[in-house]
Here is the input.
Amino acid sequence: MKYNMGLRQKIGFVLGLIATSLTTGVSYAQTDDKGLDNAVILLYHHVANDTPASTSISPDSFAEHMEYLANNHTVLGLPEVVSALREGETLPDRTVVITFDDGYENILTNAHPILKRHGFPYTIFINPNEIGSNRSQLSWEQVKTMQDDGVVFANHTLDHLHMLERTPGESEKDWLKRVWTNVTEAEDILEDKTGRSLKYLAFPFGEYNRALADKVSQAGYVGFGQHSGGVSSESQFSALPRFPAAGPYANLKTLKTKLESLAMPVSSYTPEDPMVTDRSEPPKVTFTVTSSDVDLNRANCFFGGDTIAPRVDKMTATVTIDGALPVGRSRINCTAPSMEHSGRYYWYSQPFFVADSKGNYPD
Here is the structure.
């Protein structure tokens, strides 16, 4: 599929690449007048009217999203954006990437015609063991047809397991070996069926911990979560954020602000592990930014529908939550205005994953 990039954007992109190669010591976000070290990755699941509301967007609303992107953003493929960011190259301002998790057939029937009409590249993270056993999933024949049409397919584990769950008596070493075998077997099948091994892993349910993120990096993979925020060359490539854009997040009015977001330039943060095993202490998040373009004194943080004003000390923000974290998945999102880019916000997201009393994570 061709990129949705006009002549002006193409010129800006080329100039950005030239500027990157000729200069050093550039600031975090604004690398030149045309390009940015920044992109936003969107996450969808179902595109249908008769699927679970929490992970679905109607075909009409999806078409509205894509029309807005066509008129206001540059849509690039995930491999191109990941490669550019890892190599320190600039991207066209307001670059957006489209991804799907779970490989549902309604992506082909309802979303693909819309995406093809706009010439948008996109990536689907699939579970190879679900193909042929789950009637709602794409078939391998459909995968091949879509791949011939330019769609990229990547790893979502064999069977969409909760990767943080352990079997009774399982050690951390044995747990990591088991779940990583699941990943590598899925990758082998993907390579066999598609002829391509990107080594991209979208964590099922967005769940990961420090040990798993480290394994992703050590094995040469790129990880993708389900927490929020832009991505840049300074992002944690073992767990890149993506903005969910379906279910309660499908409202285009609120999505527009997220599409304009900038990746928070963070040098250090706590907690380093999003998996929480001790809920006795109120959770506290700290992060230190590296750019003076971040107006940290006007930062706001959000948790569970509540707004929390962080405590700011120079370039470090601290936010504390009252009470214990809920079982399952939650996150703190923090935004701070850009001094240079009027109306745009830097975005930082800290996910938390809490098991129930039996060590299980809810779907």
